[in-house]
Amino acid sequence: MQRVKVCCIGSSEEAALAIRCGASAFGLVSEMPSGPGVISEAEIAARIPPPIASVLLTSRTDPAEVIAQQRRCGVNALQLCDRLPRGAHQTIRRALPGVSLIQVVHVKDAASVEEAQTLSREVDAILLDSGNPSLRVKELGGTGRTHDWSLSAEIVKRSHAPVFLAGGLNPENVRRAIVQVQPFGLDICTGVRTAGALDEARLGAFMEAVGRCQSLGRRNSGRASMTRTRPA
């Protein structure tokens, strides 16, 4: 089943809406360089039911600060939105052994493929986004832009960890994204929001499109299996 993480959850009402629509994870955004986060230190995390993953998006790169954030929030996963110094992932993992680490790679060019492949050995999952951490004011997500999905597809092939696809996904393009990239999961924010608020109709349409794509994949897989086992 395709995992769907609904990001930028800003209230208990949005969390409840995402659950009704079938989200498997929530993204809770803390302070980012390009603007304040949607929430303050993941105040909603304690209200998320255990089957749903609670993911704190952090722009911090100092392991001690990342560890302190998680301990304040109590989330069960950390999404590391910026590049961390060498050895930082191991330091965080030793301090937080039960917490999943998701490293964001902002896909720009062929170098991003190598970066993702290397980092995939250090973390539990890779998330591909369309920001730009090289700007003076870093863009670390939430841009609403897509990136080159052919590069994302190559990363999925080479990665040693599951890969989530983010960046400009919406109900209109998600089927094409799944077919081209074949990611483990999807991450959505701006594509299912209207005037900044989570839009029930758009989120429902997104989840329906994902479901149709999965159903088609299962049917095609079944036909292929029947063809392979059919006697000559």
UniProtKB/TrEMBL annotation:
It catalyses: N-(5-phospho-beta-D-ribosyl)anthranilate = 1-(2-carboxyphenylamino)-1-deoxy-D-ribulose 5-phosphate. Its EC number is 5.3.1.24. CDD domains: PRAI. It comes from the Bacteria. GO terms for molecular function: isomerase activity. Pathway: Amino-acid biosynthesis; L-tryptophan biosynthesis; L-tryptophan from chorismate: step 3/5. It holds the Pfam family PRAI. InterPro entries: Aldolase_TIM (IPR013785), PRAI_dom (IPR001240), RibuloseP-bd_barrel (IPR011060), TrpF_fam (IPR044643). Residues 58-208 form the N-(5'phosphoribosyl) anthranilate isomerase (PRAI) domain. PANTHER family: N-(5'-PHOSPHORIBOSYL)ANTHRANILATE ISOMERASE. Belongs to the TrpF family. HAMAP family: PRAI. This is N-(5'-phosphoribosyl)anthranilate isomerase. It comes from Marichromatium bheemlicum. The gene is trpF.
